[in-house]
Amino acid sequence: MGDESSVNKMIGIVLAGGQSKRFGQPKAFAKRNGKEFILYSIEALQCITKDVVVVIHPEIDTKWLQRNQLTYIQDLELYQGKGPLAGIYSVMSQFKSEWYIVLPCDTPFINAHLLKKLQLYRNDGCEAIVPSVHGNIQPLIAMYHHRVKEKIRWHLEQNKLSMKHFLPSIHTRYVEINDDDAFININTKDEYDQYIVHNNLFPQASFSKTK
């Protein structure tokens, strides 16, 4: 992977470009059952596609990624610090594919079954396939068609960085998903204690709403 002339049916994207300020250290390398959070996302994607790209924050230590022979990039310089849209656009700009399937690095209960279900909703007119969990849409665990690339760029240049504002501008298919645990993301040490240390999951589970 990495040859811009090649076109893949599907590329996986793991977003690990955040600063993890609330967690106090890079969330990607926190562990559940001895396995790094980021590895849960990578392994779920590898059940769908052999091509996975990790988008990293400049301060992340890349030794772990190199040791695991993972492809990784930083956001394009022009858009660094502009959030998830910048990460998705940066991968689309460097790795050509028909579809891109996106995961964050901090959802250690994610599973390939969920991703396979999203794939079932692909069609020629759809530009994004986004889960909805009890009315909360989850655009960072979703699929995006290559046609949205220039629309993302427009939003970045206009500093319209919210996924909430982006999704209505494209043809989005929302898919109701009932697997609450898969969407749990760990943002703080308190959440780590609740969900990882004490394994206190659904029905107490919570997950991020669209930003």
UniProtKB/TrEMBL annotation:
EC number(s): the record gives 2.7.7.77
Provide the catalytic activity annotation.
Answer: Mo-molybdopterin + GTP + H(+) = Mo-molybdopterin guanine dinucleotide + diphosphate
Q: Kindly state a single biological-process term from the GO annotations of this entry.
A: Mo-molybdopterin cofactor biosynthetic process
Q: Where is the MobA-like NTP transferase domain?
A: 12-161
Q: Keywords assigned by UniProt?
A: Cytoplasm, GTP-binding, Magnesium, Metal-binding, Molybdenum cofactor biosynthesis, Nucleotide-binding, Nucleotidyltransferase, Transferase
Which cofactors are required for activity?
Mg(2+)
Q: Which residues bind Mg(2+)?
A: D106
The record lists GTP as bound by L15, A16, G17, K27, D75, D106
Q: Name one GO molecular function term.
A: metal ion binding
Swiss-Prot/TrEMBL domain comment = The N-terminal domain determines nucleotide recognition and specific binding, while the C-terminal domain determines the specific binding to the target protein.
Q: What does this protein do?
A: Transfers a GMP moiety from GTP to Mo-molybdopterin (Mo-MPT) cofactor (Moco or molybdenum cofactor) to form Mo-molybdopterin guanine dinucleotide (Mo-MGD) cofactor.
Q: What is this protein called?
A: Probable molybdenum cofactor guanylyltransferase
Organism listed in the record: Aeribacillus pallidus
